[in-house]
Amino acid sequence: MPRTLLLNYNKCRPEDCDNGICRAVQACPLDLLGQEEPYDKPMMYSPVCKGCMEGIRACPNGALDID
Ligand code: SF4
User: Fold this and answer.
1) pTM score over 0.85
2) Among 11, 18, 34, 54, which is disulfide-ready with 63 (CB 3.0 to 4.6 Å)?
């Protein structure tokens, strides 16, 4: 059953990720997130998530959640 991916920009701090590269962008198997440049906050291409939790676990700041 599809879930909704939520991104809290107040918690996102790309400087906490290795070389400013969003760990969740790398972790999400559905490529729901993208990043224009290192140290940019990621953008969400689609919130339609399968709930695998990979991106949520990857984020060091708890910026991602699912509903
Ligand atoms: S992994 Fe989390 S803190 Fe790092 S850039 Fe992505 S959303 Fe922001």
Assistant:
1) yes
2) 11
pLDDT tens-place string over residues 1-60: 899 999 999 999 999 999 999 999 999 999 999 999 999 999 999 999 999 999 999 999
Domain ranges of the chain: 3-66
Ligand 1 atom showing the smallest separation from residue 17 Cα: 4
Ligand 1: centre distance to CA 30 (Å): 16
Measured in angstroms, how far is the CA atom of residue 52 from the centroid of ligand 1?
Answer: 17
Three-state helix/strand/coil letters over the chain:
CCEEEEECCCCCCHHHCHHHCCHHHHHCCCCCEECCCCCCCCEECCCEECCCCHHHHHCCCCCEEEC
